[in-house]
Structures are given as structure tokens and as C-alpha cells.
Amino acid sequence: MRTNWMTWSPALLVTASLMLAACGGAPVEESIPEVSGIGTVEGEANSPIYDRARAYAAANPKRDGGTWNQWCGSLMVRFGQLPDSAVRPTAIEAYRASTIISTNASTAKIGAFHWWDIGSAGHVGADLNGGGGTVFMATYNLSQSWGDAIGVNSVSGYSSKTGARYLGWSMDYAGGRIAGGGGSPGGSLPQTSTEFDGIPGEIYYKRIQTVGQRDFGYTGPIDGVTGPNTEKVRVRITARELNNRGSPRTSAQEDGIPGSIYWTRVQTVGRSFGYTGPIDGIPGPATYKAEHRICGYAVNRAF
């Protein structure tokens, strides 16, 4: 097993180029996002594999002096330090030699490989935090670019952007595995006390962001700092809990926009969380506190 493909001689790298074929899709992809800074800390919920991917991208923003675009299989082998036996000419051939566990991306473990059917060669990425929210890949179709066509996107984000058909996830890449993989998303986060006191804090928002990555397409950092995207996810998580508890149903689960039905449901369900105000669909301090308690309840049971 070679532990670092980047140390090969030029002759062997040429051979590797022939063996590790390009990903599916057009030879040149047009969507090029802004390059994000390579930070050192984005939240405790990020896994060690995520940290390794950031470090790898910082050290290798280009592939042998060129773009990473179309070299998804090469990235998996090099970053994952996979054995020679895992090498396949294309991503789709590696997919056929891998053991698919599920086609539900939200159940993927940290270090899983996600597979797509696109073009003649397919596409693959490595799940850095589990749940399909932060997938390391070589393409221009990224939510965060960490170099020349190297960075991350969610499973849903890549699928919707390219039209690729999602094939599922595996823990192996043609028999090779990423060291340290197999953990569950957000497994190291403690429970949030917001369920009991209605006071939002860092752990509360980290849990919201982690669930948002897994279930609602959130692609921002897991840093416990709220913002427009985190707030939208918070409303969607709360709305899902409300909808699970009866009717009338609120559309805020889909669009993240709270309306009169949403607030009426918060107040109604809030009776179980200490709310004693009127059921009038008009939010105030007591309604907001009940909303946070309901959301805290939901994220404490999400993982």
C-alpha cells in the first residue's frame, strides 16, 4: 500500500493518471464558486476527517499543477490513502466494486463515499461529517471551493446542480476505506439545555446546523453562531416537529418561513412546554421561548 500518491515519480504519476480516470460530466464545468478561506476551526462538530480534508486541500489546491476538475477518483485515492487494489479507471467502475449500504444519504457515516451516475465515468465524493451534508469532491460544482475544483458540496446540492442520479453510499471505495471513518454525524455534541429553559446557545445552534446539514441542505459551518441560513433551518426543524404532532400543517417545514399557522401551532404545542399565553398566532417573548424549547426538544432527539 502506498500511503501518499503525491510522492510518486513523474513516470508513475502518468500511469496513475491513466488509471484514475475523470469524473462524469462535461470536460469543462462552467460553475466556479468563490474560493473560501482555509480556516482552522469551524466548530467542534466537524470530524477529524473534515480537518484532514481541509489540510489536504490547503496543501494540494491543484492536482499536479493543474485542476482537480474531472479527477474525483484520484482525489479519493490520494486523500483517503487508499491501497493500490482500490484503484479503478473511473468512478462508476469503483462504484460497481464497492458495497452500497443505502440510497438514503442522510444515514451516511463519517468517511462514507457517495456515488453518482453522470456522464460515462460517474462521480464520487467523501462524506466529511456524515449525513451527506459536507461531501469532499473534485468538481467545479461546489458550495465551498477550497482550491482549483476541490472543495465540498452536499449530496442534494451536487445532485440538483448537475442533474446527476444519486446511487447511494458505501463505506468502501472498491475495498479501500478512509482511516477513522464510520462515526455518526454530530456524535460528539452534548445535549442542549434549550429544550428545558428556552434560552438558545452555542450547543443549540451547533445541533441545528448539524441536523440542517443532514436533513435540510444546510452547507454553512458548524460553528454555533446563528445567521440567516441557520435561522431558516431552525424554523424548518421546529415546523417538522409541529407537523409530527398534528394539524393544521405548516408549510414552514419546506420553506423556513414562519406564518400565522406556524405560530398558532407553536403556541398550541407550546402548552406542553410551559406556554400559557393566548393561541392567536401572534408571536411574542413567551411564544419565542416555546419555539426554542420545541426546537431544542427536536434536535436533542435527532442524533
> Can you tell me the CATH class of the largest domain?
Alpha Beta
Low-confidence segments, ≥5 residues, pLDDT <50? 1-21, 25-44
Task: Kindly report the name of the CATH homologous superfamily of the largest domain.
Answer: endopeptidase domain like (from Nostoc punctiforme)
CATH architecture group name of the largest domain? Alpha-Beta Complex
Radius of gyration using CA atoms only: 21 Å
Largest beta sheet, briefly? 7 strands, antiparallel
| Count of helix runs | 11
CATH topology of the largest domain: endopeptidase fold (from Nostoc punctiforme)
Number of strands: 7
The spatial strand order of the largest sheet comes to 1-7-2-3-4-6-5
- Please report the distance between the alpha carbons of the first and last residues: 36 Å
Walk me through the topology.
Blueprint: H1 10-19, H2 48-59, H3 72-80, H4 91-96, E1 100-102, E2 113-117, E3 123-127, E4 135-138, E5 144-145, E6 150-153, H5 155-162, E7 165-170, H6 194-197, H7 202-215, H8 228-244, H9 252-255, H10 260-269, H11 285-300
Antiparallel strand pairs: 1-7, 2-3, 2-7, 3-4, 4-6, 5-6
